[in-house]
Amino acid sequence: MYKRIVVGTDGSAGANMAVDAAVQLARLTGASLHIVNAHKTTSAGQFAAAPEVGLPLEAIAASNEALHGEAQRVCEDASARAASAGVSAETHCLAGDPADVLLRIAKDADCDLLVVGNRGMSGVRRFVLGSVPNKLSHQSPTSLLIIDTSAARG
Length: 154
Prior knowledge:
By secondary structure, this protein is of the alpha/beta class.
């Protein structure tokens, strides 16, 4: 049924629910699993403005390194969850907008299924700020499974 599954995670309890669902689907179908973490970093423009606001460039670079390190830890934890279920996974830790990164990996991996958790944004806030699942629902190149993560929030 599925050959390649991509799942997004930020390491939260809700994202872990999505990872667990993707792992089980991969185990049941024999699909390969791609675990994705997208993180924000300081941009080149922000780097250029840093001395003007009194921030040393070394501090910003160290902050970006710490963010990437945390993203790698999140991917490693999710990969370990997969391995404990007998599923091997490839991890992708990339800087950028989470929805854009997931869409790029889903396309590059030629995936059959994209899995994410719902993040609990509702009402006006969702429409003003947007949400990863909402953006994916409009732009996904493949089937999309949005896992109800409300139990993780409650």
